[in-house]
Amino acid sequence: MSALLIVNCIAIIGFAIGFQRSFGVDLQKFYWFAFFIKWLAALSLGLVYTYYYPGGDTWTYFEEAKKLSLLATSVFSQFWDLFLASNDTSTVTHFLYVHDRSFLFVKIVSLLNLVSGNNYWVTASYFSLVSFFSSWFLFIQLRRFAPDSTRAAALAIFLFPSILFWSSGLLKETLAMAAVYYLTAILIRLLYGAKVHLVQWALVFFSVWIGWSIKYYWLGIIIAAWFSSLFVFILTKNRKISQRKSGLGWLGVFLLLAAAASFAHPNFHLERVMEVIVSNHDLSVLQSKSNNYIHYYNLEPTVVSMALNSPWALFSALFRPLPFEASGLPSALASLENLIIFVLAVSYLASARKKSPPFVIPLFVFSVVLCVFLALSTPNFGTLSRYRVGFLPFMIFVFSFRNPLLNYLMNRLSFLTK
Question: Is 366 contained in some domain?
């Protein structure tokens, strides 16, 4: 087992070295810093759910996948039948997760378990590697096409603790965020007219499949934003159009695509979306303490009720719990991070704005829509702190991009500046 552990560690480092030679030549120090903090975040997740919160999804997923990987080494035909099935209908062994999205994730983990010898820490390390590759690929696209966004990108993708923690370990959010990061990176390349190679297109379709299978509502929103940007880019490529008109055109296309997307999945129908939001909200409230969730005004599955409560949902998901609302160490740490986000937001809104690059609008709209949706349906602060990883990196990037306060602070931190 120790030999297998050494082989896997060498393989992980080897993959990182190969990737660095292709995409991180001019940023070697920061590349390895980012790589190791992503790795450390993945291991920290396992430790937190071992000693502070015994159990948790990460260990449950691993144990379920372990059943499947052990079946592969004993009766491969039964493993293969289960692997190809959408749901667990086998009587060979019992799986806690039997539905499409969770069972798919268990199957992915089981493949890595076969490589790691059913070692949680090695499997989690491979998840951190996938997360790092997609994160770095997005980072270098931002750095290449908008050089003045480098600091904001580094902060949003690699330096925020909660983003690192919830997007690096053995969790569904890690794979979903890897897919979203990669799709965003490809969008940026397309908007700037850069060539997208055949292998990269293959990874686009794979990312869409992974993201849709695991977090379909993330993908539904981002794909609508993705195609809106491309459509407006094509129409305005050789024309001089003001940013205001371009933004209004983008919003119109986005709304049309969002309406069309409502037919792509039953849960995207407007009535169904509102019913699911309220149902999930009520269930979350029943399982939460009164001081640990967002209180809304008479939330009902109607357009008026959703519209009235959305501003509070947006504010609460981004900035709460506030420091005076914190109770306990995790809540206190979250409130400190929220305070930083609040300062970034205020300084961003208070500063004079220049014309934004074409990728800022889709990132901002995706963040706001997903933020409101998650905050309304999952008002519990603890659960929301994990789920908001889907939009938080992009929102922090928007708040940090060309932010004079951030530039002022980083000019005085030589390590981050370099």
Answer: yes
